[in-house]
Amino acid sequence: MNKNIYKLLFAVLLMIISAINVFAENNTKKEKGFNPTPHILHHIADSYEWHLWGNVSIPLPVILYSEGSWDVFMSSAFQHGKSKVIKGDRVYKIDHHHIVEENNKEFFNFSITKNVASMFLSVLLLLIVVFRAVKAYKKPKRAPQGVQSFLEPIILFVRDDIIKSNIGPKYEKYTMFLLTVFFFILINNLLGLTPGAANVTGNISVTFVLSLFTFVIITVSANKGYWKHLVKPPGTPIALLPIMIPIEIFGVFTKPFALMIRLFANITAGHIIIFSLISLIFVASNNGINAVAGWSVAPISVAFVLFIFLIEILVAFLQAYIFTLLSAVFIGLAVKEENH
Amino acid sequence: MEINGIAAIGAGLSAIGAGIGIGMIGGKALESMARQPEHSGMIQTNMFIAAALVEGVALFGVVVALMQG
Q1: In total, how many domains does chain B have?
Q2: ipTM value
Q3: Each residue of B18-47: pLDDT tens digit?
Q4: N or C of chain B: less Cβ packing under 10 Å?
Q5: Where are the alpha helices (DSSP H) in A285-338?
């Protein structure tokens, strides 16, 4: 038993030493090395086609509106950015992952990009799952089974532990929004972890809209006490008011802004870490030239990726929880009754 | 290349800050949960809120570093 552990330790040590050697060797001929940054950024970014593997990708519809006319075509017409698309007097081409018009004409872009397609997919999945559970509740009362018994504890947890305990007695109005946000973020986080999927919640526009909803709900449902706190924080000396009022007003906008950045950065950082660890193999093997080094780094790298992946599953749940929790806390602050 | 290096240092510094902050929050929360296990649910919720706030500030640093790097 003990002998085996020593053998394993020795093997790991050997691998680490060889990896260190490889890195030392790599530094001397850096110009030729493998640069993972463009690959990582390509994975993080949105795109007009759904890239699966190698040369295989699913074309998605491009919908453009320019000067009263709609131009609709599949993104395969760009041939991975190599060719231009001519519609009437408009010439479209892809420049650094963005569609531009050659004569600098203005146009609105309503394309179904990879993120939008992935969002449709996740919404569809969510609707199927939730409506199956809803159908089960229409039957006469019996023990929950199937999808219902999976969803019920989660919904009850979100309702009782997040919404009810933070918003207070008037919680019922907000359950719909908060539950929707929770499940939307959760399913997109989890789908984002599957290989080949889009990075929806790691897109700042998506998280911006989600936090905008929270901001609007806070602002609309805020009571008198909330506004009074902004213009005249109670118990503050008058000399401090010129400092406190700007801080309070600033705080109104930093709350949803922090929500936006938190979700975006957490999910994006997770994807970048996983990709960087996989890239270590190619960096070590110098893009396939030094195969031995690549093979010796691969087990360590894969083990770390597995570890980070498990953490990312935790983070997927945690971020959905945190977003819902903080939204509930902020709404609760805005609607709670003054009693001092 | 120089900008990249400084951005990486910035990301590392914000990671240190978040590490200290979240470590203290988690440690104190565990301590108080050990003292009063009956309040552990409430302590956990508040721990998550505080950790999320700390982490949010640290992520501002990471995002700025990412944009520069």
Answers
A1: 1
A2: 0.73
A3: 899 999 999 999 999 999 999 888 898 888
A4: N
A5: 291-335
Helix and strand totals (H; E) in chain B: 2, 0
Say which residues have a Cβ less than 8 Å from residue A340's Cβ, sequence separation at least 6.
A234
Query: CB within 8 A of A256, min separation 6: which ones?
Result: A211, A212, A214, A215, A218, A330
Inter-axis angle of helices A241-284 and B40-68, nearest 10: 70
Q: What pLDDT is stored for residue A182 in this prediction? A: 94
d(Cα A103, Cα A47) in Å, to the nearest integer? 23
Instruction: Please tell me the pTM assigned to this model.
Output: 0.81
Q: Is the Cβ pair B59, A326 closer than 8 Å?
A: no
Q: How far is residue A177's CA from residue A181's CA, in Å, rounded to a whole number?
A: 6
Contact list, A325 vs chain B (CB under 8 Å): 45, 48-49, 52
Three-state SS at A129 = helix
| Structure tokens, A249 | 């007003």
Backbone dihedral angles phi then psi of residue A60, each to the nearest 5 degrees: -120, 155
Residue B38's domain comprises 2-68
Closest residue in A to B57 (Cα) is A258
- Nearest Cα of chain A lies from the Cα of B42 at a distance, in angstroms, of 9
